């Protein structure tokens, strides 16, 4: 327990932790402020009147629209628009509305842009994004914590104090996972609170009923688990390479060229569902619960083509397997290799 | 009382692709008695640091046994590590942490009271610099911090690799007094690996000298030096021109006596005693102005034993030290050196490379 507390303190006292912590908190606060500033509950009467005036002015210069408005039988008598009255959209429309829709008249809303932040619809995705970014940051921090200890000689020092390597590695991983979990919880709760305040002030909260909570918590929980996995992966890579740069290089390399490889494979090989080679696809399936991949080559006029479904369970097995593989390799390496 | 450290037949070979394996330890034996300051000496690449790293469980060995406090290591190291304080190789720390935080984290990890941190900072003279980050520390300050770290646990066995490295004269003096106080007043066993032979001579009670992964000699420092001194006499006469005649007189007076003229003096070896030289030369009509028994210091003994004495116009290469035959190494009594030829083939391997860097 003493070692665990010391490891947590070591992580917390690192300069990189402080810098990334401030950046993440500022990012969440800034995002909420941006949401609040661009969201409105609707245009003012004056804005509406000005937009309507602009629309009217434009319509005056549009002879087709003007003729349509003035002639109730415009669609019936004009052979170019004879199909309109059979269009399902036409049913129930007033004549002026039909002219705006089919002939192309301007409306007030065409000259006014409003965005209303809907907490119910958008907040879950923003929070998921924040948790993913937190996972990436924790991956960097955990790899840096392990890598820096190797390159500074601190690891050898620590091993002289704590010769049981498995206990040392387990404690370090435990501390990194605890730090990651704490960061995810703090940032998710903070984002929830700030976005809720932004929606209450400048947007709309919506109906946060039981199913909404269930779905949102499921998404966020799975993303949180993903962040924990990324933390273990970062630490394991640094333990294997014994340097932060090696872990960083592997991660950055994949992030940069991962999709490039998928595109090259899909272009050069006649492979079904090449997207399944990309980890992003599996990460997406893990977070959202399900991803459907379409085989465009098998699509015909009669058939929609083959579809591959990846569920969160399958994605969890693959992603968990990758994390487990690197974790086991790192453990074996730490146990067997000399501390140079 | 059983030895605190017992190492027998320790072997460590570094294997690398496309290169000859390097035997860093080749059957090394080492014993350190309790309550002593023990020097662990050897040329660069002779296996000192490898031995200490193996003892502390940092590297795996290929053979041999090691015991600390009677417990077999590295298997039982977790049981005895709380009694061991160690600094291996150049002290390195996380550079953005302060000296105090570095020690606090280690103390916390081992459940030691916070007061120990302040106590050891005071003990090594870092109290004023404790708040500064380590990146601003000089080599000597880092060395002090490393020793402070080793002292945190109030160890019964202190293992220090080059503890005087980077220290100023006052720091070296302080370190010597501290280590001697720990050993002689507190009963701490101190093992010091060092190349500062004059310092070792002043500091250590006993020592082991190793070469190419094997022990050459061990015993008390005084006994080892005494065992290699006193065999030669320096003779001066009022007229330096009479030195060849004096040499001839001594050599003809007794078989086995050697006499060589070196500038304005005569170096005599194999004489039964100084009085015999005085008498023999007087009988030849030569009267002495000076007769000195030449005593060796640890440096000359070390260079002689390890075969690393520099030769005019030649540079001693890493790994160019005596190769001790295995049988000789095992049967050598304490204090008795092992006669072995100098092998001039330079070694390669991690430790040798490290030393070259």
TrEMBL record, chain A:
GO terms for molecular function: ABC-type transporter activity. This is ABC-type transport system involved in multi-copper enzyme maturation, permease component. PANTHER family: INTEGRAL MEMBRANE PROTEIN-RELATED, MEMBRANE PROTEIN. The chain crosses the membrane at residues 16-38, 125-152, 173-199, 219-238, 245-265, 315-334. The lineage of its organism: Bacteria, Bacillati, Actinomycetota, Actinomycetes, Glycomycetales. It comes from Glycomyces sambucus. It comes from the Bacteria. Keywords: Membrane, Transmembrane, Transmembrane helix. The keyword Membrane applies. One of its GO terms (cellular component) is plasma membrane. The keyword Transmembrane helix applies.
Automatic annotation (TrEMBL), chain B:
Residues 326-357 are annotated as: Disordered. GO terms for molecular function: ATP binding; ATP hydrolysis activity. Residues 326-337 have a biased composition (Low complexity). SMART domains: AAA (SM00382). Gene3D superfamilies: P-loop containing nucleotide triphosphate hydrolases (3.40.50.300). Residues 5-237 form the ABC transporter domain. PROSITE patterns: ABC_TRANSPORTER_1, ABC_TRANSPORTER_2. SUPFAM superfamilies: P-loop containing nucleoside triphosphate hydrolases. Keywords: ATP-binding, Nucleotide-binding, Transport. Pfam families: ABC_tran. Belongs to the ABC transporter superfamily. This is ABC-2 type transport system ATP-binding protein.
